[in-house]
Design a protein that fits this description.
Blueprint: E1 4-8, H1 15-23, E2 41-46, H2 50-58, E3 63-65, E4 68-73, H3 88-96, E5 100-107, H4 122-153, H5 157-174, H6 189-193, E6 203-209, H7 219-231, E7 234-238, H8 240-246, H9 251-260, H10 267-278, E8 281-287, E9 291-298, H11 303-310, H12 312-316, E10 318-324, H13 326-331, H14 335-340, E11 345-347, E12 358-363
Parallel strand pairs: 1-4, 1-5, 3-9, 5-6, 6-7
Antiparallel strand pairs: 2-4, 8-9, 10-11, 10-12
Helix pairs in contact: 1-8, 4-5
């Protein structure tokens, strides 16, 4: 399941520093000037999962394969991006290919790092980015209206339905609200997503703070968190600079460094988990002597859908799933112990997979 989260913000808010830390590379050039990132950099990141490591020790498994999520470093947007300012059109198009958007807000003061608008105001920065995305959506939708109206009048039901959703989105945008604020029925969900609106994507607000504020945030990050609550978005506090330093340390040194900062884990772990939550995702596991592996599925997916993530034939020929809850698998030290204690269940096509299920699929192709 290839999932992408766009990292978006004004220039010099710490996007590329954050991206570098996420991917533990220097692939994205972090420099003190706008547009230092011209092409979007994509990083394939492992999802932190302590349960997977625990499961791997029970068999034990030779290899541990975590679930993964893609982060895309989008070049800094500026006011007027929707009209092409600062190569804006190119960057906006890159966001359309992503499943969610992480808005990075600068919540630190550093006189050595300039701000493109000459002041530090994270809420204003968020307004600028959101406005540009909204304007881009409005332009895209307005171009479609005339053609959709002609087709709808000619009796094309699909065009009529699309036109209804376009007008719903425009109503939101013209009222100063992002498209994700609209209430969409389950029946309309697929057609709504096909509109490819920038502001309909799930949003995560990332407050990039100074080192001293990494553990508890600061006054600016609290304002961002309040804004996220009002906007129905998730939020997380992180120090991109600290994370870039942590990424260069080995596992033993990381623990000591985090302790000195009053942190229990890297902020990146929180960011990745929030992105997972934002996209409505969960994890199930397969465990064997060759490998212990985490698989990403959507909450509410059934056993055949979960099997299909491994291979399409598993879903087509699905017979049943042998399932053990994570806690039971650990408590009874594996499949045999779980079976002996009546904790291994045989589930059919209607079974809705739970987060942490350890599964083995039976299928016939």
């Amino acid at each position: 399941m290839a999932l992408k989260v766009a990292i978006v913000g004004l220039p010099n808010v710490g996007k590329s520093t954050l991206f570098n830390a996420l991917t533990q590379t220097a692939a994205a050039q972090a420099a003190n000037y706008p547009f230092c990132t011209i092409e979007p950099n994509t990083g394939d990141v492992a999802v932190p999962e302590l349960r997977l490591e625990t499961l791997a020790t029970i068999i034990p498994s030779k290899e541990i394969i975590p679930a993964r999520i893609n982060f895309v470093d989008i070049a800094g947007l500026v006011r007027g991006a929707s009209k092409g300012e600062g190569l804006g059109n190119q960057f906006l198009a890159n966001i359309r290919d992503c499943d969610a958007v992480a808005f990075v807000a600068r919540c630190f003061i550093d006189d050595d790092i300039t701000h493109v608008e000459g002041r530090i105001d994270p809420l204003s920065d968020l307004d600028t980015i959101e406005t540009e995305l909204m304007l881009a959506d409005m332009e895209s939708l307005e171009k479609r209206v005339s053609n959709l109206e002609k087709r709808a009048k000619g009796g094309d039901k699909e065009s009529g339905n699309t036109l209804r959703l376009v007008k719903l989105a425009l109503d939101q945008l013209n009222s100063g609200r992002p498209a994700r604020a609209a209430t969409i029925s389950k029946d309309d969900d697929k057609a709504w997503k096909m509109l490819q609106l920038l502001t309909s994507k799930p949003a995560l607000y990332v407050s990039n703070v100074d080192e001293a504020s990494a553990a508890d945030g600061n006054a600016m990050s609290k304002l961002v968190a309040e804004r996220a609550t009002r906007d129905g978005a998730d939020s997380v506090v992180i120090s991109a600079q600290i994370e870039s330093e942590i990424a260069m340390l080995d596992s033993a040194e990381r623990g000591e460094f985090l302790e000195t900062l009053g942190l229990t884990e890297p902020g990146l772990n929180k960011l990745i988990r929030e992105a997972y939550h934002l996209l409505g995702l969960q994890t199930y596991f397969t465990v064997g002597p060759k490998e212990a592996r985490a698989w990403t599925i959507h909450k509410g997916d059934t056993a055949p859908q979960a099997a299909g993530v491994i291979h399409g034939d598993f879903e087509k020929g699905f017979i049943r799933a042998e399932t053990i809850a994570y806690d039971d698998y650990v408590k009874f030290k594996g499949e045999a112990g779980a079976r002996d204690n009546g904790k291994l269940r045989s589930e059919g096509k209607d079974y809705v997979v739970h987060d942490g299920d350890v599964m083995n699929f039976r299928f016939n192709v």
